[in-house]
């Protein structure tokens, strides 16, 4: 008997190999033991049937494939072949090679055979002859072996090379991602519950002013606006008192010379000349902020951050809140009232 041990996923390959050996060695179906070919009947002690079949076999051929090595039961079968070592010839299918047995008891097994060509199939046939298993016509067998290699083994090799391998590392990564998704889902659930509670609270409020106060307490854009205002105001207040005016004019007139429009009084110009010596401003047919000065550089960054926020986040709700807080002011940094009333600065005008 020939016992072919294989993964159920390789059942088609095992049956085709059995057919090749059966027809070329003039054997019968009952000369083979294949678990995937309905050899085991329902209700039988199938583990005992495998043990008996393996013990009585003249030739035990484990088909070593990626599917075989991935099956705990196949590895148990492989270990059980010790009961009939003389009959054992592990058959290794490409893309695997002899190193595939490295983690098995057969890592130094001399009788293993890797089917890399039709010549290797001829070696399998010679092994069967040596073990007195049937008779074969080698010229005819070699013809069939070539067709079997091209039509069965080569496509099997390609399939195994392209299959998706579920490695331990991939499982670990998927578990990590699943944990992250669960945490994100739980966070979204918390936010949803908070929104539900907020909506219920709003429905319970009958007084409009109370509703407005509640809405304002959850207005993140307004909090960001006031924080940026505090930052700009704090930065500019550290500068000599005339410099905020230079920065305002530079901002308003898009970096044109500050006193092209006669913005400063003689006393202010005298002060600016002193600041020129200190590196705060430069003269080029008009006063301009000297951006290489660290305080000027920091101030311009703060101003740009506030401007960017207003350019991208100026919603209707934010504008309504501004108009209520600062009645009569235009919500625009291009006007001196904004710098004076909101930022709390002194802006010098012509003749002052």
Write the layout of secondary structure elements.
Blueprint: E1 2-5, H1 11-24, E2 32-33, H2 46-56, E3 59-64, H3 66-69, H4 72-80, E4 91-92, E5 113-114, H5 118-130, H6 138-162, H7 168-204, H8 208-217, H9 220-237, H10 243-252, H11 266-277, E6 281-283, E7 287-289, H12 294-313, H13 316-325, H14 336-342
Parallel strand pairs: 1-2, 1-3, 3-4, 4-5
Antiparallel strand pairs: 6-7
Question: What's the domain count?
Answer: 3
Rg value: 43 Å
Proper CATH architecture of the largest domain: 3-Layer(aba) Sandwich
The termini sit apart by 114 Å
Q: What is the beta-strand fraction?
A: 5-15%
Strand order of the largest sheet: 2-1-3-4-5
Structural class: alpha/beta
Determine and state the CATH class of the largest domain. Answer: Alpha Beta
Report what the structure shows.
The radius of gyration is 43 Å and the shape is elongated. It folds into 3 domains: 2-162, Rossmann fold (3-Layer(aba) Sandwich), CATH 3.40.50; 168-214; 220-342, Arc Repressor Mutant, subunit A (Orthogonal Bundle). Helix 1 (11-24) packs antiparallel against helix 6, helix 5 packs across helix 6 (138-162) and helix 9 (220-237) packs antiparallel against helix 12 (294-313). It has 352 residues and is an alpha/beta fold. The chain has helices at 11-24, 46-56, 66-69, 72-80, 118-130, 138-162, 168-204, 208-217, 220-237, 243-252, 266-277, 294-313, 316-325, 336-342; strands spanning 2-5, 32-33, 59-64, 91-92, 113-114, 281-283, 287-289. The strands form 2 sheets. A 5-stranded parallel sheet has the order 2-1-3-4-5, with helices on both faces. Residues 38-43 and 257-262 have low confidence and may be disordered. The protein has 14 helices and 7 strands. The N and C termini lie far apart (114 Å).
């Amino acid at each position: 008997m020939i016992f072919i041990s294989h993964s159920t996923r390789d059942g088609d390959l095992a049956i085709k190999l059995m057919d090749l050996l059966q027809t070329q060695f003039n054997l019968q179906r009952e000369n083979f033991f294949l678990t995937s070919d309905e050899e085991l009947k329902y209700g039988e002690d199938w583990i005992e049937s495998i043990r008996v079949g393996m013990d009585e076999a003249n030739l035990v051929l484990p088909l070593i494939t990626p599917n075989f090595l991935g099956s705990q039961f196949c590895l148990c079968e492989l270990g059980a072949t010790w009961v009939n070592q003389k009959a054992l010839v592990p058959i290794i299918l490409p893309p695997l090679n002899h190193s595939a047995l490295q983690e098995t008891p057969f890592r130094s097994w001399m009788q293993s055979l890797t089917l890399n060509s039709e010549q290797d199939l001829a070696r399998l046939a010679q092994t069967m002859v040596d073990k007195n298993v049937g008779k074969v016509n080698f010229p005819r067998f070699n013809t069939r072996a070539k067709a079997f290699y091209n039509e069965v083994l080569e496509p099997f090799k390609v399939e195994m090379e392209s299959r998706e391998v579920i490695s331990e590392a991939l499982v670990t990564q998927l578990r990590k991602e699943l944990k992250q998704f669960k945490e994100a889902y739980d966070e979204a659930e918390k936010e949803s519950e908070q929104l539900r509670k907020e909506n219920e609270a709003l429905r319970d409020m009958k007084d409009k002013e109370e509703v407005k106060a509640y809405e304002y307490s959850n207005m993140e854009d307004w909090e960001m606006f006031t924080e940026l205002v505090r930052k700009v105001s704090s930065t500019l207040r550290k500068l000599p008192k005339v410099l905020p005016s230079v920065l305002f004019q530079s901002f308003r007139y898009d970096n044109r010379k500050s006193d092209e429009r006669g913005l400063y009084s003689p006393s202010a110009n005298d002060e600016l000349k002193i600041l020129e010596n200190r590196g705060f401003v430069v003269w080029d047919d008009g006063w301009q902020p000297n951006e290489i000065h660290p305080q000027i550089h920091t101030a311009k960054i703060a101003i740009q951050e506030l401007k960017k926020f207003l350019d991208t986040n100026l919603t209707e709700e934010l504008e309504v809140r501004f108009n209520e807080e600062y009645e009569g002011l235009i919500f625009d940094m291009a006007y001196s009232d904004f710098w004076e009333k909101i930022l709390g600065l002194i802006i010098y005008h012509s003749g002052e």
